[in-house]
Please model this.
Amino acid sequence: MHGTFIDVEVSGAAASDPELARKLEEVCPVDIFAAAGGTVEIARENLDECVLCELCVEAAPRGTVVVRKLYDGTRLER
Amino acid sequence: MRFYEYESRRIVERAGIPVTDYGFATTAAEAGQAAERIGGPTVIKSQVLTGGRMKAGGVRFADSPEQAEADAAEILELEIGGHVPVGVLVDPKAEIEQEYYAAVLWDGRAKRPMMLFSDMGGIDIEQVAAEHPDHVGRGHLSNLHPIADFEAKQAVARCGMTGSALNRASAVLARLARLQRDYDMTLAEINPLARLADGSFVALDAHMEMEDEAVGRHKPMLHEIGVDLDEPRELYEPSEFERNVKAIDAADHRGVIQGKDHGFHGDLGLVIGAGGGSLTLTDAVRSQGGRPANYAEIGGNPSVAKSKGLAIEVLRKDGVEKIAVMMSIVSNTRVDIVARGVIKACLELGKDPAETIAIFRIPGAWEEEGYRILDRYGVEYCDRSVSMWEAAGRAVARVQGDRTGSQ
Model:
């Protein structure tokens, strides 16, 4: 399930990295990520609050976090 | 901020304006004691922040302390217009020669205080001004210069008063003018101001309203006269819409939303704001024949959830089919975030955003991103090259077009 405007994908292996989970939880200003039991949990109800700051993309290893803008099909990634 | 009559009396008294030897009581027994102390016939008046006390039975005349106590017991139980009295004011029944009206109010058009005086007090001043304009004296005051007694005298003299009465009434009006300035009152009114048999003037009733923004700097005075600053003193009972918007705002620290619908009965919902934009846009809608369903303020970068919450509340109001989402250019609120909020509101209510949002005009931060969202849902929008007036006109035309089409 995704938001109306935004979706976030964390690649399988990265999603179970406790260090990345903690880092994503720390950097996201609108609480989209939570470190739950050592894995990355995404708070779906907050997805549409994404301010497109790209901090999550910058904090994660290249290619592991993608922010998708559902209204125009573009993506934020590195 | 509004004041109860007994508080207004205390303010007037502090300004050196004579008042009767009144008493404030919160119990019937206290009222009886006050009447005993005053001696003679008394008037018992309910202390509520609403009008219509006399008609509702909230004002009674007592000939003895026992009767005053009995009347107070009934008045204290009497709800007037949904307001429960905080007490009663016990006033001596004065022997009055003549009643006058004195007030100093903030004239928003002139941007200066204005004095009003009439030798026909005790009744509605608007009625006096309409039927007996020669009995109303007016005079504007400077915002900068000290208030001189002669200015008050000129206003009093304009309604034909002369001699000793002129001198005594002028002194009262001058003090009222200084009170109005010193305490940032939007209204300082004494009605009636009575001339007694010995020629002296006393305030029999007073009505004060303080600018809300000024309450903080007058805390010492407010504390001294016993005002409870935690007590809500709304002009009217907030509607469900107003309560809900306030709760949504309080639940999320991001940005600010406000919503009022008291006195609004229109069909065009407004989600508007930014640097005076709300007033300007409401006026722009009304002057082009539109009928706003509410007044609103949105700004300071609210979250998507907060924007959505305001839009949902506006759309749920009876008679609202469309909303206009508009802001002044001075906003730094993110356009894309508000766009997401209002579109989500439409979708959650099962409405088509393209049909429901009559116009979207928020120039400012992230507007290109916002336009991409609006494009996706087919919402009509415009940028800063379209004035607030034109945007409001387009919203009105869309609502009226729908109404014409359905007839």
User: Anything to note?
Assistant: The interface with chain B takes residues 4-5, 30, 48-49, 51-52, 69, 71-72 of chain A (CB under 8 Å). The two ends of chain A are 23 Å apart (CA to CA).
